[in-house]
From TrEMBL:
Cofactor(s) the protein requires to work: Mg(2+)
Region forming the signal peptide: none
Native source species: Pan troglodytes (Chimpanzee)
Assigned EC number: 3.6.1.1
Keyword Hydrolase found: yes
Keywords: Hydrolase, Magnesium, Metal-binding
Record-stated family: Belongs to the PPase family.
Name of this chain's protein: inorganic diphosphatase
Length: 195
């Protein structure tokens, strides 16, 4: 949380609930065109992994190698500096799905895998009338919640993971998709005693 606040103090508004940066979705296609994914293993199994590659076909880490902000020209000319408030988001869990997917921060090249707890694959429960996550869920690359730093808002230490994102647009995105998001707000949460 404090890492995100430091990031935002550099000129961007607050963040964590995010939305697509462009109305027609061209921003998401533009960002994803720079990265490709490769599946290994069977989905819904402990050996499933989704690896990332750059345009030259080299494996990259979504955690470390995808920039938080793209350098270069914005997708369309903005009437103001709004394009400067667009950040890359890596989709881990598509909207309306139940499998709890996450970047494997302790594995080489940090692929996306399904979260395992007590030896079992983790799924989120449906809350009627909805199925799974009601938004696209993911993370901001090159961010990190420091497990050695206590957050002033929660009085808890960081969870040693990138900053989580809820993308509240209307589209159903794919696991591993890299999209542009605009920051709308931030919310500090405590999960198992961590920020």
């Amino acid at each position: 949380m404090s890492a995100l606040l430091r990031l935002l103090r550099t000129g961007a508004p607050a963040a964590a609930c995010l939305r697509l940066g462009t109305s027609a979705g061209t921003g998401s296609r533009r960002a994803m065109a720079l990265y490709h994914t490769e599946e290994r293993g069977q989905p819904c199994s402990q050996n499933y992994r989704l690896f990332f590659k750059n345009v030259t076909g080299h494996y990259i880490s979504p955690f470390h190698d995808i920039p938080l902000k793209e350098n270069g020209i914005p997708m369309k000319k903005a009437r103001n500096d709004e394009y400067e408030n667009l950040f890359n988001m890596i989709v881990e869990i598509p909207r309306w799905t139940n499998a709890k997917m996450e970047i494997a921060t302790k594995e080489p090249m940090n692929p996306i895998k399904q979260y395992v707890k007590d030896g079992k694959l983790r799924y989120v429960a449906n809350i009627f009338p909805y199925k799974g996550y009601i938004w696209n869920y993911g993370t901001l690359p090159q961010t990190w919640e420091d497990p050695h730093e206590k957050d002033k808002s929660t009085n808890c230490f960081g969870d040693n993971d990138p900053i989580d994102v809820c993308e509240i647009g209307s589209k159903i995105l794919s696991c591993g998709e890299v999209i542009h998001v605009k920051i709308l707000g931030i919310l500090a949460l405590i999960d198992e005693g961590e920020t």
